[in-house]
Amino acid sequence: MAYSILIVDDSLPMRSVIKKTLAAAGYGGADILEAENGQQALEMMRHNWVDVVLTDYNMPVMNGLDFILEAKKEDLLKDLPFVVVSTEGNDKRIEQFMQSGAAGYVTKPFTAESIRDVMVTILGEGDDEEHVDDSDDDLDF
Amino acid sequence: MKNTLMTVMMTSISEVLETMFFLPAEQQEDRVLSGSGLLENPDTLSAELSFSGDVSGRLIMVVPGGLLAEMTENFMGESTDRLSRALMEGTLTELLNMVCGNALRKLDAGHSFDLGIPAMLDISSVPSDLPAAVMDVSDTRIASILEIQD
User: Fold this and answer.
1) I need a labelling partner for B108 at 20 to 30 A (CA). Which of A76, A117, A125, B55 fits?
2) B1 exposed, middle or buried (CB, 10 Å; 0-12, 13-18, 19+)?
3) Distance from CA of B35 to the nearest CA of A (A)
4) pLDDT per residue over B79-129, tens digit each?
5) Distance of CA A63 to CAs A35, A53, A60, B79, B98, Å?
6) ipTM field
7) Are A13 and B72 spatial neighbours (Cβ–Cβ below 8 Å)?
8) Mutate to test the interface with A, among B97, B106, B113 (most CBs of A within 10 A)
9) Residue A141 binned pLDDT confidence (cut-offs 50, 70, 90)
10) Chain B residues with beta carbon closer than 8 angstroms to that of A108
11) pLDDT 10s digits, A90-132
């Protein structure tokens, strides 16, 4: 069964790069859902099956931290794993994310390996391992 | 502090351009933006990102449209003829976001910063009389202006 992965980022180019990176990391067979902010993502999660959420922090309308905190209040959503993918990388901020219930953290700019490592920790190996690219090409994002 | 921050920003621009956009960058001498030649290019785009904390201010980046198309192509893996202006603007604001985030992380861990939301900035609103850090990138140039609040 294909995983369902929700990408939450207000930047369309960044959502595309994360999708491409997920494919390079072995998750090319996953169903990808996209939202531009936390509020849109919450609405999407209430109506769609999601296995893992990759979310930015700095977003208009609802930022990544408020998004996770809101999701944790809802019985249907509170156990979902959230991975924060953000430029914000100081220790205090990361501690805030982890205390809010985030399952992982990836700093932008990121590599496919860093995305893959956190995804494998949460989901296990990708479901299209034949697409895992161990060469240097396409891995440095 | 401004000099330290600008040095870190320049290093960050080079790193992000090379890592995410596969483009090497070489810094020129600082000059005012009006002397960089960028403002004469009608396709030039600019964006700004504010930050606050121990030091507050904003970083403005000015990039010619042709280079931005190449950057977007490299970033997204899409051919240039499929790129919309929205995608190019999204690439510029994301560049700014990554540059600032990466730079502020490089500063001493004792400093605390919050990043704002990057936004496009009309080129006519860019302060052209302030010192700008100009970098050669892919046969053209980009400029960055760092404003620090007193």
Assistant:
1) A117
2) exposed
3) 31
4) 767 788 899 999 999 999 999 988 888 876 566 778 898 999 999 999 888
5) 12, 14, 6, 31, 17
6) 0.78
7) yes
8) B97
9) very low
10) 97-98, 101-102
11) 778 888 889 999 999 998 888 888 899 999 999 876 666 544 4
Lookup result for tokens 């964006």: B47
Contacts of A20 in chain B (CB under 8 A): 76-77
Q: Which contiguous run of DSSP H or E holds residue A92?
A: helix A91-100
Within 8 A of A90 by CB-CB distance, chain B residues are 104-105, 109, 112-113
CB within 8 Å of B134: residues ≥ 6 apart:
B27, B28, B29, B30, B31, B36, B141, B142, B143
| Mean of the per-residue pLDDT values of chain A | 86
Contact A60 B117 (CB under 8 A): yes
Whether B125 and B119 have beta carbons less than 8 Å apart is answered as no
Other C-beta atoms lying within 10 Å of the C-beta of residue B122? 8
pLDDT reported for residue A43: 97
Cβ–Cβ below 8 Å for A109 and B16: yes
Q: Report all structural domains of chain B as residue ranges with CATH numbers, in order of start.
A: 2-148 (3.40.1550.10)
Answer for the pair B141, B36: CB distance below 8 angstroms, yes or no: yes
**Residue B8 contacts by C-beta under 8 Å, 6 or more apart in sequence?**
B103, B104, B106, B107
